[in-house]
Amino acid sequence: MKAKAADKIATAIIVVFSLFIVAVLLGLLGFILYRGLSHISWHFLTSVPQTIREGGGIGPQLFNSLFLLVLTLIITIPLGLGAGIYMAEYAKPGKITGAIRLVVEVLSSFPSIVVGLFGLLLIVNTFGFGFSLFSGALVLTIFNLPLMVRITEQAFRSVPKEQKEAGLALGLSKWKIITSVLFPVALPSIVTGTVLAAGRVFGEAAALLFTAGMSTPRLDFTNWNPLSPTSPINPFRPAETLAVHIWKINSEGIAPDAAEIAAGASAVLVILVLVFNLFARWFGNLLYKIMTASKRMG
Amino acid sequence: MKAIDERPVGIADNPRPGRFKKHHMEDFAGRSYTTICAILLIVIILSIVYFVASKGLATFFKDGVSFSEFLFGSKWDPDGNHGEPQFGVMPFIFGSFATSILAAVIASPLSICASLFMTEIVPGWGKKLLQPVIELLAGIPSVVYGFVGLTVIVPALRDMFPGQGIGIAAGSIVLSVMILPTITSIGTDALSSLPRGLKESSYALGATRWQTIYRVILPTVLPSILTGVVLGMARAFGEALAVQMVIGNAPHIPRSLFESASTLTSVITLDMGNTVMGTAHSNALWSMALALMFMTFIFVVIVRLLERRNRI
């Protein structure tokens, strides 16, 4: 009977701990949304932040986060796809492939602050891009590249071997097989993975403190000249993202409503990440149906 | 000769030379492009290592701080506000290790239970329930964790224990939630890839579920779970902002878990913006970044060793 009692107790503990994790998540989300949602309004989402007075918004920060995301994806996707395809299709097992695999592993576990410091030294100072969206996007590329490579490699490897062999039998060149046989099948997983990786761009702050900067110049949203310093779409201006803004007002905010702004901005950030997650899944499944005319398993 | 040139091109004949070339060109271009992308990865990592090391080693070679004084000194006064400048980073190394080890201690049992819940206890809806929970926990940005830690955990600790609430305890609680998804997902993968025969033969011998888990399943997947724990610790070790927000940032070794402390990352975050490049203070921060990088290598080596053990 002792063994059965132990079994019951252990099962109970496992169930309780698991439900505790669910409770932690629900508590977290509930707290963030409860504290933040009441502060979110159109005015909050569009107006500029205030340093001393209350009533500041997060308009420029929200725009910066989205713009930085686009910039990062423009740089990350071609590089990540290229390296991922190399790993999946061209790399022969051996020392060099092993080295690249190790590099991907190390790069993905580098602390983001170290990558940020590297960006500060090389991109901001040596290359002279200064605190800018462009510097931030390059650093986030370094940060996201390992993930992107892994996603692409797995997506290409999971394509059934027969499809590739059929292409080879038709006398297609390797590159042709990659682009017109393997890529369409791998695309849905790549898109899902990319969107999930992009969600990390929203949340990343440590790498951006010293690359994209902690301030935003006064933006003129009617000025669409990408070279003008007040233009929102100028990639060479400093830009404080939403995540950096949350950190800044928590550690040095002096506005009387700093706590509410932090709560509101956190809620916006979490909602964005949630929307991104749901969108990634939905869009990936949709693409899979379109590209392969079949239902996805699982 | 003219007649030959005007022959219609057929499959049996010589293929059109232009087409032949184009397809080779394409293949060559594609192969070169992907190879360059892969080489770029190596270039990036080598340049990170080179630049961080060249800056970080300047503390020892240019500013003449001895290696042992840096690693084991407990006084941090880089600008010399109290006499001679002191570059002892022991308190920060201690803070980093204390927070990440404690976080792993808190998160590991929870994660292992969650993995078991998803694979052994209720494989059907358990996975449907916990999988999205784990993914959402992984998706919440670190500054949001820091913010919640600052507004919920710190006041709660302040009420329950003596002290300000900030400190290593608050830092490790926040970190434990952040590394929970890492350990859980690796543990779940390992558990669900276990051969069915192992479990079934244990049940056939009359073992209860807990006996099977404890005597058969856990020992088999232990290396994988340890891999998850090490990766989680690596993430905790490198996390900057969430920890910085709740740890208090006092530059000394705390006497209790509820007293203000610092980690390597929190000091870099706070001080980097206020120092001038090339000064001894700035170089010392780079040396700390070098230490962080070195620890990353150690974590990766441990993971590799565990994986090798797992393969046998």
UniProtKB/TrEMBL annotation, chain A:
It is a multi-pass membrane protein. Coiled coil: none annotated. It is found in: Cell membrane. CDD domains: TM_PBP2. Residues 62-280 form the ABC transmembrane type-1 domain. The keyword Transmembrane helix applies. The chain crosses the membrane at residues 12-34, 66-88, 100-123, 129-149, 181-202, 261-288. Keywords: Cell membrane, Membrane, Transmembrane, Transmembrane helix, Transport. Pfam families: BPD_transp_1. Belongs to the binding-protein-dependent transport system permease family. CysTW subfamily. NCBIfam families: 3a0107s02c (TIGR00974). This is Phosphate transport system permease protein PstA. It comes from Paenibacillus cineris.
From TrEMBL, chain B:
It is found in: Cell membrane. Keywords: Cell membrane, Membrane, Phosphate transport, Transmembrane, Transmembrane helix, Transport. PROSITE patterns: ABC_TM1. Pfam families: BPD_transp_1. It is a multi-pass membrane protein. The keyword Cell membrane applies. It comes from the Bacteria. GO terms for molecular function: phosphate transmembrane transporter activity. One of its GO terms (biological process) is phosphate ion transport. The keyword Metal-binding does not apply. The chain crosses the membrane at residues 32-53, 92-117, 129-154, 166-191, 212-234, 284-306. Residues 93-307 form the ABC transmembrane type-1 domain. GO terms for cellular component: plasma membrane. PANTHER family: ABC TRANSPORTER PERMEASE PROTEIN YQGH-RELATED (PTHR30425:SF2), PHOSPHATE TRANSPORT SYSTEM PERMEASE PROTEIN PST (PTHR30425). Part of the binding-protein-dependent transport system for phosphate; probably responsible for the translocation of the substrate across the membrane. Belongs to the binding-protein-dependent transport system permease family. CysTW subfamily. This is Phosphate transport system permease protein. It comes from Paenibacillus rhizosphaerae.
